[in-house]
Every structure is written in C-alpha cells, then in structure tokens.
Amino acid sequence: SGGEATAAMGWAQQATRTALAMTAVGLCDKMMRITGSYTSEREQFDRPIATFQAVSHRVADCYIDVECLRLVTQQAASLIDQGRPAADAVSMAKIWCGDVAHRVSQAAQHCHGGTGVDRDYPLHRFCLMARQIELEAGNSARLTGELGESIAREYLASAG
Length: 160
What we know:
The protein is an all-alpha fold. About 80% of the residues lie in helices and about 0% in strands. It is elongated and about 65 Å long.
C-alpha cells in the first residue's frame, strides 16, 4: 500500500515496456531475415532483387535499426535487473521499439511487394503484431514527450 504500491506499479510498467521492446527485437529481426531471404530469391531483370542498391540499402537500414533496438533494450533490462534507476532507459527502449517496429514492418512489406500483404504469408501476421507492440504501453510520441519533461525537470532542478 501507499508508496510501496506506487513503486511496485512503476517497476511493473518498466518491466512490461522492456519486455515489449525485447519482443519487438525478435519480431523485427525475424521480419528483416524473412525479407533478406525473399529478396535473395526473388528475381527481376534476371538477377535477385537483393542486388539492387535501393533494396539492399533498405534491408541494411533494417539491420541497423534492429541492432540499435537490441542495444537500448538490453541496457534497460540490465538496469532493471541491477535494481538501478531505469525509467529513462526504459522510455528510450520503448521509443525505439515503436519507431523500429514501424520502420522495419514498412520496409519488409515494401520489399516484398504484393506478397507482403497476403494474409496467408507469415509477414502479414508479423506486421500486425509489430503494430500492436508499437502502440502497447505508450506510443513513441507520448513517451518522447514524457522523457523530454523528465530531462527538463532534472535540468531545472540542477540549475537551481
């Protein structure tokens, strides 16, 4: 009760947001790998579309996004595990989670063309799940605002 309940709820919210971000890491990694495999097999003009610069750059951007998301999420999880203050790290992980889930989902569907939106193809379900995770437990816009307010409060408190 009281302050202990508030602290427990805060911890649960941080753990939930971090778990969603880590789920997004796996989900986005899978979408990226499906896209890499598909573009390596799909041919246009007698060569795999993965050899086209625009396609390879798009998948490379997905790889960078996934690895950045992995890093910030591991940082948040590590701070929670150590019992250290993790609110800002968790917010950053969830912000990255929403942004990366959106970008990777879009890139995967774009590189797949019409196949990407086929309800029988697994990518369709992954994209739906990515959208759910993007919006669950606070979207990126809201969390960016909250993080900015937190940073401003900390700055104003130290400036005195």
